[in-house]
Amino acid sequence: MVTGNRHKFLEARLILAEFQVDLLQVDAKRLEIQAEDVEEVARFSAEDAARRLGGPLIVEDAGLFIHHLGGFPGPYSSYVLRTIGLEGVLRLMKGASDRRAHFKSAIAFCEAPGRTPRVFTGVVEGVISKERRGEKGFGYDPIFIPLEGDGRTFAEMETEEKGRLSHRGRALRKFAEWFTRMYENI
Ligand code: IMP
Questions:
Q1: Which of 44, 55, 63, 158 is most buried by its number of CB atoms within 10 A?
Q2: For ligand 1, mutation pick of 14, 66, 78 (most atoms within 8 Å of CB)
Q3: Which are the contacts of 118, defined by CB distance < 8 A and separation ≥ 6?
């Protein structure tokens, strides 16, 4: 998995272990295009990474889409976190009654240089909390409450619990089901 984000890698490794798929992290810079959807970003990055590093590999791109803000920050999620941060997002949400949001993850798998990547997506619906809660996880985890949970934010959950509900978990399980079918005889 080509990523500089150790949290992402550890989440992914735990999920793929359920399928007896072993994952290694390559902390190499990946080219990231600016595009409206995470699938396109992940596909481009995987193709580029395979060209430079060989394959097989996966790359993930994710974003947080907040309804009240018309889907913002979406593809700008990392920029927004780096600039206005969680406090800035909470300020933008002050007084909002519609606090719905979703995370979307796209996992792109590229087998070898020159091969077309295959993309798997996962979504988790939730709401933006009124204040930050929890110390676990990363990124927007302290302000995201998944609807299928018990009211805790992702940052209040263990990695395994988050993985059962998360966008990343869902995308990775789709990938792993396909991957283990394709490669079961290898
Ligand atoms: P990227 O996929 O690393 O480009 O993620 C975009 C932004 O969304 C980054 O700021 C991440 O920290 C944040 N992000 C991605 N996945 C998650 C997650 O599972 N929880 C919280 N924040 C996330």
A1: 63
A2: 78
A3: 108, 109, 110, 178
Tens-digit pLDDT profile for residues 81-133: 999 999 999 999 999 999 999 999 999 999 999 999 999 999 999 999 999 99
Distance CA 57, CA 55 (A): 5
Instruction: Tell me how crowded residue 52 is: count the other CB atoms within 10 A of its CB.
Output: 12
The verdict on the CB of residue 76 being under 6 Å from ligand 1 is no
- CB of 78 within 6 A of ligand 1: the answer is yes
Percent of the chain with pLDDT over 70: 99
Q: What is the pLDDT of residue 186?
A: 64
Domains of the chain: 6-182 (3.90.950.10)
Q: How do residues 22-49 score in pLDDT, each as one tens digit?
A: 999 999 877 778 888 999 999 999 999 9
Give start and end residues of each alpha helix (H) in the chain.
6-17, 38-53, 77-83, 85-92, 159-165, 167-182
Query: How far does residue 185's CA lie from ligand 1's centre (Å)?
Result: 34
Active site residue 98: no
